[in-house]
Design a protein that fits this description.
Order of helices and strands: HEHHEEEEEEHEEEHEEH
Shape: elongated
Helix content: 25-40%
Radius of gyration: 33 Å
Length: 262
């Protein structure tokens, strides 16, 4: 049997026409993109969308942005707006501003979480980690009560004014800094610094710890840490820890009895 030869198929490409087609398609896409960008640049802000949880309400955040309805939405400097809001709203943790097609500006703001709280004239104020006042508060769950010496005034966004002298203020802040560096800081219920010669703290809401004055303060805190992690409080539901002398820490544990159960 003879073999039949397959005919070769030859495709001719008109390079000139193909190039012209590619250029035409590219120019059309560029024209569409340019038109879209041009149209977008004229779009005006008509509404705001505010999300997140903070002490500031919708109108306060919008006013702080400095942006108004009718402004060209896609000509706004987002970074500048975010910095402006953070400056006007000092107890915000973060804020993000984004345009949303076709005419909406979205503001996402998250407030600072309270780590401490103080009381003044029967009113509680939440403080952030740097002791700046966040706002008045009713719920103090998860926050440590801080008793400062001679609190005079409280202003949102600032550290409370306290102490009878710059020395008292400085020493108090040193104590707070040392306490914040401990491994048990998250377990603190109360820190009493009304007098730096009679410092005390409460751990887990049930262990009263007496530290006396500021002498060898870091040593005292390390001694307390050691006790809290030892078997000396095993099974205890509360107790008293006297760390006035870090070399000889006294511990009086309180255990649950049948009487206390009832």
């Amino acid at each position: 049997m003879g073999h039949t030869r397959k005919k070769k198929r030859v495709i001719y490409v008109n390079v000139r026409k193909l190039t012209l087609l590619c250029v035409t398609v590219g120019m059309c896409l560029l024209a569409v993109l340019s038109s879209a960008l041009l149209i977008r640049s004229f779009l005006k802000l008509d509404r705001f969308e505010v999300t997140g949880i903070s002490a500031y309400d919708r109108e306060m955040l919008i006013n702080a942005s400095g942006v108004k309805r009718g402004d060209r939405l896609y000509s706004l400097d987002r970074k500048e707006i975010e910095e402006r809001i953070l400056k006007e709203c000092p107890y915000l943790e973060s804020v993000t501003v984004n345009p949303k097609f076709p005419n909406t500006l979205r503001i996402s703001a998250e407030g600072k979480s309270g780590q401490w709280y103080i009381e003044l004239s029967g009113v509680k104020y939440a403080l952030d980690g740097n002791l700046s006042v966040i706002a008045e508060t009713v719920k103090t769950d998860g926050m440590t009560k801080l008793i400062l010496p001679n609190v005079k005034s409280v202003m949102v966004g600032s550290v409370p004014e306290f102490g009878n002298s710059e020395t008292e203020r400085k020493k108090t802040l040193e104590v707070i800094s040392a306490i914040r560096s401990t491994t048990f800081k998250a377990r603190l219920t109360e820190v009493d610094l009304e007098s730096r010669w009679d410092i005390s703290i409460v751990v887990d809401g049930c262990f009263e710890v007496y530290l006396h004055d500021m002498s060898d303060f870091e040593g005292k805190l390390k001694a307390v840490e050691k006790v809290l992690n030892s078997d000396r409080l095993k099974g205890a539901v509360g107790g008293v820890i006297d760390a006035s002398d870090p070399g000889s820490v006294g511990v009086i544990p309180i255990y649950q009895t049948e009487e206390t159960r009832t």
